[in-house]
Amino acid sequence: SQGAMGGRGAFILFEGADRCGKSTQCKLLVDGLNSRGVEAELWRYPDRTTAIGKMIDGYLQSQTDMDDACVHLLFSANRWEKRKLMLEKLASGVTLVIDRYGHSGTAFTAAKKQPGLDLEWCKSTDAGLPAPDALIYLEMPVEETLKRDGFGGERYEKTEFQREVVKNYELLRRDAWKCLDASRTIEDLHADALKIAMGAVEECRTGKPLGTLWE
Ligand code: FDM
Ligand code: MG
Known about the structure:
By secondary structure, the chain is α/β, with parallel strands linked by helices.
């Protein structure tokens, strides 16, 4: 079935360092879209509910150890395993608001600075996945994110590591990214995100083709 107004749904991606407000904005955006008659769902990566996702969850909670390349491939596989459903949802007119994707995958693994696991290698495992129609990057210095609730106990929630992650996001950054200053109020950010998303929804509804990474 096609969406009520015809055409495909949009893939809206939120990226940014830990504690920048991604999850809050994702939830608000899905509600905002739904209340404007745009059918939207919230997805997140890693999706910890699948068999692969459970392996990733154990790793992030330091219950298990894994080779750095191996866990990178699992994060990537966790996106590939959901590709078919993603394509079906978008084709049926549903807009997907997604909290992290392959950009997190590359920014985090490359932050480990292991030989061979450079940006290009990290990107390569996601090449061919559906590309976002709009990428909203919530920009915030690591110092500012530290003033927020503070990190939890997961594996990557360390100040120095987050600094490297932010540097990698800067290296991945493209002109098409919609960069928002994450230190603004929740309401201000939401207003901008909603404007960006409604623009993408309209473009997709009227025939914009879905791209693939890493265009
Ligand atoms: N993360 C997330 C990765 O290292 N690679 C990936 O491909 C993705 C999607 O997992 F530290 C990291 C980012 C974060 C951790 O993410 C869990 P959430 O958003 O905190 O659940
Ligand atoms: Mg986290």
